[in-house]
Design goal:
The protein is 41% helix and 22% strand. The protein has 261 residues and is an alpha/beta fold. Strands 3-2-1-4-5-7-6 form a seven-stranded mixed sheet, with helices on both faces. Strand 1, helix 3 and strand 2 form a beta-alpha-beta unit. It is globular and about 60 Å long. The chain starts with 6 loop residues before the first helix and ends with a strand.
C-alpha cells in the first residue's frame, strides 16, 4: 500500500472485513502450535482471531502502513510480550509484502482483504512462497474481479465533475482486482501446487456508510483532493449510491501450498 491509513477509524468500521476473514481462517488447517504469517495484519482485529487458533503457536504480523502497525502493536500488546506478559506469541513488523524477508520460514500464510492493494502479484507470490516452509499452505482472500465496480464507477463519474475534476484528472487507483484464472497462473509460476482460486459475492451494507466509504473505499481518492473538498466528495458518492448503501464486494479466495520437496 502506498498510502498510510486512519487505523483507529478502520479498526472501528472494519466489522465487514472481520466477518469476511472468519471463513478464511476456518479453511486454514492448524494444530495450534504453528508459526503463521499474517500477511497484511491491518489494525490487528483479525490477528487476534488467528491467535485464538494458535494457543501454543506464534503469529508474525506484517503490514506496510505505519499507522496500522502501531495500532496492531497496541491491540496485540499481551501477545507481543509487553509487560506483564511472559510469553511472546506475536511479532508485528512494518514491511512491504513484495520485499518481505523473514529470519525463519513459517508453517502457513494467512491473508485477508490485502492482496488487491498490491500491484505486483507475481512478486507478491514469489515472496510468500519464499516465506513458507516446504509443505506450508497459503490461505487468503482479497478483492477479486468485479469488486465494488458500481461504486467505483460512481466515484469516477463524480471525480470528472467540478469542483473535483482539476485535482483528479490524472487519478489512477491502486487496486488490483485479479481473476481466479490469472491468480492461479501466477501462483503456479511462483512454484505453488495444489492451487485453487474462486470468486465469492459478498454484499456489504456498512453501519456508517460515509465513514466506511471514506476510510475503506475512497481513501486514495480523498488524498488527491484538498482538505476542504474531501468530506463533500465522500458524502456525494455515497448519496448517489442510494440508501441503504450496499457495496457489491466480490472476494477472491486463494488456496495453495508449497511443495514438500
Amino acid at each position: 500500500m502506498s498510502r498510510d491509513w486512519d487505523a483507529a477509524t478502520y479498526d472501528r468500521v472494519s466489522h465487514p472485513q472481520v466477518e469476511m476473514a472468519k471463513p478464511v481462517l476456518a479453511r486454514l488447517p492448524l494444530r495450534g502450535d504453528e508459526t503463521v504469517l499474517d500477511a497484511g495484519c491491518g489494525s490487528g482485529r483479525v490477528t487476534e482471531l488467528l491467535l485464538d487458533r494458535l494457543p501454543e503457536g506464534h503469529v508474525v504480523a506484517v503490514d506496510s502502513a505505519p499507522s496500522m502497525v502501531e495500532h496492531a502493536r497496541l491491540t496485540l500488546a499481551d501477545a507481543i510480550g509487553a509487560p506483564p506478559a511472559s510469553v511472546k506469541r506475536a511479532t508485528v513488523l512494518c514491511a512491504s509484502l513484495t520485499e518481505l524477508t523473514l529470519d525463519e520460514p513459517v508453517d502457513a500464510v494467512f491473508s485477508n482483504a490485502v492482496f488487491h492493494w498490491i500491484a505486483d502479484h507475481e512478486r507478491l507470490f514469489e515472496r510468500l512462497f519464499a516465506a513458507l516452509k516446504p509443505g506450508g499452505r497459503l490461505v487468503a482472500q482479497c478483492g477479486g474481479k468485479g469488486n465494488i465496480d458500481a461504486f467505483r464507477r460512481l466515484a469516477d463519474e463524480l471525480a470528472a465533475e467540478p469542483p473535483y475534476k482539476p485535482y483528479m484528472e490524472d487519478f489512477v487507483g491502486p487496486w488490483n482486482y485479479a481473476s481466479p484464472e490469472d491468480t492461479e497462473a501466477r501462483l503456479l509460476a511462483a512454484g505453488f501446487e495444489d492451487v485453487r482460486c474462486w470468486l465469492q459475492p459478498w454484499p456489504v451494507s456498512p453501519a456508517d456508510p460515509v465513514e466506511f466509504a471514506r476510510t475503506v473505499c475512497l481513501g486514495n481518492h480523498l488524498e488527491a483532493l484538498p482538505e476542504e473538498l474531501r468530506a463533500g466528495y465522500a458524502e456525494e458518492v455515497v448519496r448517489r449510491s442510494g440508501a441503504p448503501l450496499t457495496l457489491e464486494y466480490v472476494r477472491l479466495n486463494i488456496d495453495a501450498a508449497r511443495p514438500r520437496a
